[in-house]
Amino acid sequence: ACIMSMSVHVGLLSGHSCVVDTDAALTVAELRRKVQQKLQIGVSAFVDDSGQLLQEDQSLSEAGLQDGCRVTAAASSVKLLGSRMCKAFALLRPEGSVITWGAAGELCRGEMRNVEHIAASVAAFAAVQEDGKVVCSGEPWAGSDCSSVSEQLRHIKTVRASSTAFAALTELGTVVTWGSKSSGGDSQAVAEQLTGVVDIVSSWSAFAAIREDGSLVTWGDVYRGGDSRPVQKELRNVCHVAGTLMSFAALRKDGSVVTWGEEWSGGDNTAVTDALQGVQTIVASSRAFAAITEHGRVITWGDVDSGGCCNSVQPQLFSICQVCATDRAFAALRTDGRVICWGNAESGGCCDQVQSQLNNIRQMAGSSCAFAALRSDGTVLAWGDPRCGGDSSEVEPHLVDVVQIYASLCAFSALLANGDVITWGQLYHGGGDSASEYHWQRLTDVHSLQVVPDLLRH
């Protein structure tokens, strides 16, 4: 039989579009997979020019599609949230309700409605509702009790978390904090300086706020990055900040880097100061930093056993577009889709067992001691400590058409194009079948993805 080639123009309501070269005998489901790979989002359905919904099992010719035709892809609105500091995952559904699973899985979900954003500490969630108010749930010791500042939690734009405290950024550029004082839950000492704030970043037990003039304000544990006074004069024109357990690194607009906090935990970058030029972004493990330069190279410093030295793989670290971290290792993604690892072998710093398969990678995630990588064909590879999600063999048959992967402390969740969520790793931390057991049928209609900041744990 003659196979008729054809081009299909696919558009999203967001304005994004692509052209897919295919053939008329392929099904609508196969077209969906091709579009997902091109646009790197989940697609739940297609509608033709007449408004008719295309059936998944129909061939393109049976659906009435012709060469050069246009269809609209329907993307949905579920958000899956995870953090490698937290022991749980949260799913934000289209109508704004929240489902959680893992250690914090039995939270008071009924109170979380009309939610737009969620932040996670080690065992608590803080959710920003569409009316700008904040609702918390989880363990009180981890920051779930915001009653002391409830009246101030109005007109909130976003929330950030340290290990056991939260900091909320208001629409006016001020900051409201609560939770453990030793982890940054009390910002009274710097309250007058917390104006014109545009972003907040955390270490394990401190916060750093970037102001609109490029200056920085810190508070929390003074031994873990909460005191930036020694380098305050250098903290100008700051555009990005990253935090390890005990230190911070600030990227300035000129591409230079300023560090402070515990020296052995990345707070001292003097050994690589000359090399830290033209830096584009910084990623943190628990005790080390990795900076990507404008030329696609990687510069590291901090604890050697936490990935602070990449000399063994330096020749391979070129054309780097993404770096991901576990507690004690890093994985770098090159523009050719290959992945290079270094750091503690048991924490994912050695990927020899899967190296030959680590190609065509487009996204990575790191738990405390394992990595997962999403390939362009929608399949997933995992390596590192099996107890932390480094072995995905049991769910491998189900890891197809994956759109995005997320990590908690010791588990991973994969969001599929059809809205299902596949989990693996420790059940207590959101792995195993913890999502499917309670919520499998409820995880549908996916396209909009969001991850809470990649924070650290003790």
Automatic annotation (TrEMBL):
Domain Ubiquitin-like: 6-71
CDD domains noted in UniProt: Ubl_ubiquitin_like
Source species, domain of life: Eukaryota
InterPro entries, A to Z: Ran_GTPase-activating, RCC1/BLIP-II, Ubiquitin-like_dom, Ubiquitin-like_domsf
Record PANTHER family: REGULATOR OF CHROMOSOME CONDENSATION
Protein name per its UniProtKB record: HERC1 protein
Gene: HERC1
